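Example record used in the benchmark description.
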Amino acid sequence: MKIRLTLAVLLIQSTISFAQPDSLPASPYRIHRSYELAGSGVLLGASYFGFRKLDRVATLDAAEVAKLNPVRINAFDRPIASLNPAGFETAQKRSDLFLNLSIASPLLLLLSKPIRHDALDLLGMYATAHVVNNLLYFGTAFSIRRARPLTYNALLPLDQKTGPAKSNSFYSGHVSFSTTATFFGAKVLTDYYRIRGWKRAAIFSVAAVPPILVGVNRMKAGKHFPTDVLTGFLIGAACGIGVPEWHKFRRKTAGLAFRPEVSFACQRGLAVTYSF
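Model output (structure tokens):
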């Protein structure tokens, strides 16, 4: 773990040192700090109640657990339902550790002076990425009831298979949140310094390591199936990359305007203007 983190820091530091210009480059994003930072902060705070509500909705009782049959699980996911419970607690702790490290990983961007100069704007965009991720997660997890792998496990006592947060397996929020964070950091770094080619691929490869470790340990903890983890990874990557890309697009089209036009002959049209 320490080796992986050291490699990640060295890679980012060397990339920044190699690409550091004499003057501060302009931000590649168009961000409205006033409402993105405050609005996203409020929504992230409100999500606490969403998670509490989801845990209650995802409750399983003994009768529901009795109806679960591992044979009905698809062949790809089925092996996770029969893991040795002895390793559940350790894997749970590891997944939480890797998740927390992932959430904090964008702080490494502050090693860069240009990025540090835009820290508040980027904080607003980072919060927005997690808000979008949370909305997608809640929309899915509240509507899809999938029992966690541990609820099928014959080696686990019934009291550990019933209760709250037992039927919200799809999809993995831990993996999704982790991937949003690390891919956001990779996206911002490569956008600011216009990094392409093998260096860009290397940075995103490093960014994929923490979410993979989160996913592996969530499965070993009996909390998620492989398909839950893969789905969480893809959605998290889309949020971590997509939100900065959307702000980048907004900056490129900031001078583009559309205006309806009506002539004296009552002919209607659309005027397109672009300000340089």
